[in-house]
Amino acid sequence: MTRVRAAWSRFSVLVVLALAALVLPAAPASAHAALLNAVPEPGSVVGTAPAEIVVRFSESISVVEGRTQVLAPDGKRITGEVTAQGPLLRIKVRHAGQPLGTYLVSYRIISADSHPVGGAMTFSVGAPSARPAEADPAKIHPSVAVAVPAGKFLGYAGLSLIIGPALLLALLWPRRLSRRGPILLARAGLVLTGVATLGGLWTQAPAASGAPLWDVSVPELADVLGSAYGLTLLARLAVLAVVAVLIPPVLRGDSARWRSLALVVLGLGGLATWPLTGHAGESPLPGVIVAADVVHMAAMGVWLGGLVTLSVFLLRQAHPRVLGRILPAWSRWAALSVVWLVGAGVVQAVVQVGSVGALWSTAYGKLLLGKVVILAVVLGVAALARRFVQRSEVVTAGPGRLRRSVGIEVAATVVVLGLSSVLVQTTPGRSVTADSARTTEKGVSATLTSGLFTLQYYVYPVELGENNTVHGFTYTPEGKPLVAEEWTVTTRLRDQDLEPVSEPMLPLPPRNDAVGALTFPLPGTYDITFTVRTTDIDQATVRTTITVPQVPSRP
To answer: What is the spatial distance between Cα 91 and Cα 51, in angstroms, rounded to a whole number?
Structure first.
C-alpha cells in the first residue's frame, strides 16, 4: 500500500508539472536562475585576459559569499570582487600575468526564487588548453596554511616586546640598573612586527590564489598592495617607522611628555590595523569588536611584555629591596591589564561565537575554550605571585620563587598567543552556524561533470518522506545550455538491502533542465545517479551522494 501511495504521489507531481509546462509561458524565469550568456562567451577564445567577467542569468540573483571563483590555466585563483546587479554576476579578475590557455569560472548564486544554483563555464585566452580542475575556493596550500598563523604569532609577540619593555623603562625602571637588555628587547619587537607585517603582505597573494608560498608574481603583489588589506598593512608599517624614530628617548628614560603622548596615539592607531584586517570588519558590531580587539591586544602587550622583561632582566639583576618597591606597582598594572584583557575577550567571544552550542560544535569555539582553560591556569599562577609580592616576601626570601612563577606565566601565555594566532584565521562560530542553517534550509546542490555534459542539480528540502523535489540543468563542457532528450534519476540507500529506485524526470522548456520527485524512506546516505540522453545515441551517467538526516517529514 505504501509503495502504491508513493508511486501515485510521484505521478501526481509529474502530471502537475507537465500541465504547468503547457499552460505557463516557456520562459527560463519559470525555474531557477539559468545562465543565458556571458562576457567572454562560454567556450569562446579571446585575445587577452579580461579585467572583469560578466555572467547574465535568467532572473535576478544574489551572491553566495566566497563560492565564486576564477581559475587561470595554471590553476591559480584570480578572483577579485564579486557583485550581483539584478540578473548580472560581475567578477573582477586579479592580474595573473595573463597566461594563455583555458580559464574556468565556477559560481554559486541564489536565484530570485531563493534557491541556490551552482555552475561553471570556461573561456580561453589565445588558444584552448586543458581545463583547470575545479577546487574548493577556500582551500590554501599547506605552506601558506603554516606561514599565515606563524606570521600572526610573530606580530603578536613583536607587539608584546614593544609595549611591555617600553612601559617598564619609561615608568618603573631603576636608575642604576642597565637599560641595554630591555632596549634590545623593544628593538627586537619592532623588527619582529615589521617582518610579520611584510610577511602578511606576501602571504596574502598565495592565500588568495591557492598557490604555494613561493609562487607569487609582481602583478599579484601589486594587487595586494592596492587592496584595502594591503593599504592597512602599509599604514601599519608607516606607524612602526614613526614609532622607531620617536621611541629611543622614551626607552632611555629622558623623553618629553609630548613624545610619550604621540607614541600612545600612534600605538592605538597601529593596534587598530590588526582587527581591521581580520574578522572584526565582517562582524555584526564592527566598531565594538575593533575597540575590544585593540584593548585586548594592548592589555596582552602590557602583561606578556612586562612578564618577559621581569623574568629576563629585573628579577635577575635588581636588588631585592629595589624589587620590593617596583613589584607592587607592576602587580597593580598586571591586575588591571588582566581585567581589561578578560573583559575585551568576553565581548569578542559573545559576538563572534554567536551561540553557546557553537563553543563545542565549531573549530572556533573549541580553540576559544582551549585558550580560556590555559588562561585560567595562568591567572591562578599570577594570583599566587601577586600574593607573594603583596606580602613583601621577595625582600626576605629573594626573587627565586617569583622567577619560577613568572616563567610559568610566560610559557603558558606564549601558548595562548599561539592559539590566538590560529583563532584569528578560523571562521567565527556565528558564521559557521549561519552557514549550516542556511545549507539545511536551502537543500543540497552541486555540479557534476561527464565527457558529454556538465549537470547542475538541486534537491529540496532533503528530508524523510516523499516531499523532495529534484531539479537539474545540463550544459556543454564549455558552459553553454545543452538540450537533453531524456532524464532518469536513481536513488539507492547505502548499507541497506534495498533495491535502487529509478524514476523519470520531466524535461522543461527550453529542455536543458528537468524536474522530478525523490522519496527517502529512511535516514542515511543515498547514492544518487543521473542518466541523461542528449541525442538518439549519446547518453552519459553522473553520480553523487546525499545524506538525509533523521528528522520527521513535515505534515
So the answer is: 9
pLDDT at 242: 95
Query: What is the tens place of the pLDDT at every residue in 218-238?
Result: 888 887 888 888 899 999 999
User: Which amino acid, 86?
Assistant: G
Per-residue burial over 416-442, b if 16 or more Cβ lie within 10 Å, else e, is: bbbbbbbbbbbebbbbbbeeeeeeeeb
| Residue pair 505/516 in contact by the 8 Å Cβ criterion | yes
CA separation for the pair 456, 65 (Å, rounded): 19
b/e per residue 268-307 (b: at least 16 CB within 10 A): eebbbbbbbbbbbeebeeeeebbbbbbbbbbbbbbbbbbb
Distance CA 86, CA 61 (A): 6
Distance of alpha carbon 488 from alpha carbon 529, whole angstroms: 8
Q: Residue 149 pLDDT > 60, yes or no? A: yes
Note the helical H segments in 97-217.
142-171, 180-209
pLDDT, tens only, 258-310: 888 889 899 999 999 988 887 666 666 777 888 888 898 898 888 888 888 88
| Cβ-based neighbours of 316, under 8 Å, separated by 6 or more | 399, 403
For the record, the C-alpha cell of 59 comes out as 532572473
Using an 8 Å Cβ cutoff, are 103 and 72 in contact?
Answer: yes
- Residue 148 grid coordinates: 599565515
Residue 328: CB atoms within 10 Å: 14
Beta bridge partner(s), residue 520: 465
pLDDT of residue 163: 92
Maximum separation of any 2 CA atoms in the chain, in Å? 98
- Taking the C-alpha atoms of residue 101 and residue 124, their distance in angstroms, rounded to an integer, is 5
Confidence at residue 533, expressed as pLDDT on a 0 to 100 scale? 93
pLDDT at 236: 95
Least confident of 1-5, 48-52, 116-120, 144-148: 1-5
Compute the distance between CA of residue 539 and CA of residue 465 in angstroms, rounded to an integer: 30
* Angle, helices 142-171/400-423, rounded to nearest 10 degrees: 140
What does the pLDDT read at residue 442?
56
Assess contact for 464 and 521: CB atoms under 8 A.
Answer: yes
Single pTM value for the model: 0.66
Is residue 410 within 8 A of residue 304, CB to CB? The reply is yes
CA distance 371 to 300: 13
CB under 8 Å to 345, separation ≥6 — which residues?
292, 296
